[in-house]
Design goal:
Layout lengths: L1 H6 L15 E12 L5 H5 L4 E13 L4 E10 L2 E14 L3 E16 L2 E16 L4 E16 L8 E14 L5 E10 L5 E11 L1
């Protein structure tokens, strides 16, 4: 659950920033995921849902079609750091085809909610490049390791979850965007998570 909420904010589009000149994207994104009934670790910590706003900087490197990403969040003794890269296999006027890998490390020390998590995400997708409205579809695979405070429980968790993602970027003003999207988790009991964000791209 935590891994999904973090991982689904790893991207808000699958377009390639890199081109003839460097591209830059600065945004604030957040995911939301209800805690599953069978998640003993997070139920023990008292959480019913999880979401965390994350600031993300993306820089496109010209010629080689690579975007580098850095992420950070801090809130009430909880912090997240992460980074990764996106590679453009195909960049055309109507659409981009890209793949990314990103790693996140979360540490939570807020009251009784104490745990750590690491999340590795692999994704591949298509981004349609049209004015104002830019939709995307993605398939992702998340590997999450969750380590709770030993005072709460000795149970450690690890999960590997494939998911299907979709969303859209709305650019109602030049250089800005609003993102909304959702993920469909391909688990034994299928589930849904959501994300949203705002930013500037130039």
């Amino acid at each position: 659950d935590v891994g999904t909420a973090i991982a689904l904010t790893s991207f808000h589009q699958m377009g390639n920033l890199a081109g003839i000149v460097p591209g830059v994207d600065v945004g604030l994104h957040s995911g939301y995921k209800k805690i599953s009934d069978d998640n003993e670790i997070l139920k023990a910590s008292g959480l019913s849902a999880f979401g965390l706003p994350v600031a993300q900087l993306e820089v496109g490197i010209p010629v080689i079609n690579v975007d580098l990403m850095a992420r950070y969040s801090s809130y009430e003794k909880s912090s997240l750091v992460g980074g990764g890269a996106r590679y453009g296999f195909l960049k055309t006027i109507p659409f981009d085809v890209t793949a990314l890998v990103i790693y996140n490390k979360l540490n939570v020390e807020a009251g009784e909610n104490k745990f750590g998590a690491s999340v590795m995400t692999l994704s591949a997708g298509i981004n349609l490049n049209v004015p104002v409205l830019s939709p995307y579809v993605v398939i992702s695979y998340d590997v999450t390791e969750l380590t709770p405070d030993e005072k709460l429980t000795s149970v450690k968790g690890k999960s590997s979850i494939p998911r299907l993602d979709g969303g859209v970027n709305l650019s109602l003003m030049p250089l800005t965007y609003l993102n909304v999207g959702a993920s469909y988790l391909l688990t034994e009991k299928p589930d849904v998570a959501y994300r949203g964000g705002v930013g500037m791209k130039f």
